[in-house]
Amino acid sequence: xxxxxxxxxxxxxxxxxxxxxxxxxxxxxxxxxxxxxxxxxxxxxxxxxxxxxxxxxxxxxxxxxxxxxxxxxxxxxxxxxxxxxxxxxxxxxxxxxxxxxxxxxxxxxxxxxxxxxxxxxxxxxxxxxxxxxxxxxxxxxxxxxxxxxxxxxxxxxxxxxxxxxxxxxxxxxxxxxxxxxxxxxxxxxxxxxxxxxxxxxxxxxxxxxxxxxxxxxxxxxxxxxxxxxxxxxxxxxxxxxxxxxxxxxxxxxxxxxxxxxxxxxxxxxxxxxxxxxxxxxxxx
Length: 284
What we know:
Number of strands: 0
Strand content: under 5%
Order of helices and strands: HHHHHHHHHHHHH
Mean pLDDT: 95
Largest sheet: none
Number of helices: 13
Low-confidence stretches: none
Radius of gyration: 19 Å
């Protein structure tokens, strides 16, 4: 039972978002790292993310039942009732908000609430089944954890926050479009109007290419405006250009799933490397 409750929180999504928090928090903390502030920021935000993922699971039970990759999820198999999942989601969500509000700062709590509302209400409930632009809307919530990592330390919104936000919007669009090509048949079964189904795979691959370029421009701006070092930009650019090269090759390739898989996995390498290099940039 404990394992089932853990599964509906989508641990992999939580871990991915924790990387975003860690990178911006460590960057913003130099030279005064506060372990307790770091712990409560990660813990509180993780609980809010977990809560939003449970709400996502509850709302999407009917969709998950139609797709091969999700048909064995806990709520689809009725291993946990939707009511029990809802109570659990509300409990951990409230605890997460309280931790952020009382032990971090009100601004970070407010940002986590905005991310929660965007993901649960606007993305999952309102737009996912109705428009091809739901992924773009959902990318807003996925970009907020990195901003929270900064505001937890600074307690203010500045240009650095905005650049982080749009950087991860561009990253998530390329990342999720690659996923949508990989699982296009599942989304077709579920009747979801995702971009590659409506606009075609070729156009989706071209959009991935454009989003990677935008990602590279926004990361460069972090250096040109003095937030990150030129050593960061030089080293990171090599990986970005390779990511862009894979995307370019995928446009001409016939094996859509093979190259989309490469784009997907390399995007994980990119975001991990970005946050690692940002967290140690003070060395340079």
